[in-house]
Specification:
With 227 residues, the chain is mostly helical. The protein contains twelve helices and no strands. The chain has two domains: 188 residues, no CATH class; 35 residues, no CATH class.
Length: 227
């Protein structure tokens, strides 16, 4: 991981860590949780994309590959430190656009089409086909509003939205389809919905080390114990 990747990771992690408990559930609308619970009850709950991005709830295979590559550049993985791919950010965004964020479907379609056109005009390749250095240049051009050919959404609007959704996929409650294996929570030391904090937990000034628990997971474990 290069210095640019490390700086971006540090920025995103520090931003979320500074937000405190927001990483647990406050990044997405309540209606999204309701939608996901309904999917769970009907045996159509969130399923992560395979290692090779394919068509999912909203994205086709090409769109999924682009989002996965873009998100990984925004939140790159490193040895011992999960990135966007490890946390299932693609799965989160895909499910969100098929549910609570359905009003952003056209935004994403147009944004991805404009991104592809810009990459092919500037580098004669799609975003996924570019090497890491070129992908970084594309992202910088979007962030700075210098990428040409963007009408709606603008380059900066598309970048800012995708960055926000990448952070949500990294750090929101796993019930929403991201934060796989509590990757994001472990990264910032967020404990999740623990059933019990001991007096020593509350008094300690050290980072919380017990494995994170999501609310729905805790409820499931409780029902098993009662059975």
């Amino acid at each position: 991981m290069n210095k640019h990747d490390a700086a971006r990771r540090a920025f995103l992690v520090s931003t979320v860590a500074g937000a405190g408990a927001v990483v647990g559930a406050g990044l997405v609308p309540d209606t999204y949780a309701q939608n996901q619970e309904e999917h769970h009850e009907s045996n159509a709950a969130a399923q992560p994309h395979p290692s090779r991005p394919e068509a999912g709830a909203f994205f086709n295979e090409e769109q999924a590959a682009t989002i996965a590559a873009f998100a990984e550049r925004l939140m790159p993985g490193a040895p011992g430190r999960p990135g966007a791919s490890d946390a299932g950010v693609l799965n989160y965004i895909d499910l969100a656009l098929a549910g609570a964020y359905a009003d952003l479907q056209d935004f994403y379609r147009r944004g991805l089409a404009q991104l592809d056109a810009y990459c092919r005009k500037t580098y004669h390749q799609s975003f996924v086909q570019l090497d890491t250095a070129a992908q970084e240049k594309v992202i910088a051009a979007l962030d700075e509003g210098k990428a040409t050919g963007f009408m709606w959404p603008t380059a900066q609007e598309f970048f800012n939205t995708l960055r926000t959704h990448t952070m949500e996929g990294m750090f929101a409650d796993p019930i929403y389809g991201g934060n796989r294996d509590f990757a994001g929570w472990r990264l910032v030391g967020f404990p999740g919905a623990q059933g019990l904090f001991t007096p020593s937990d509350l008094e300690s000034r050290q980072a919380f080390t017990r494995a994170p628990i999501a609310g729905i997971q805790a409820e499931d474990k409780g029902s098993r114990r009662r059975a």
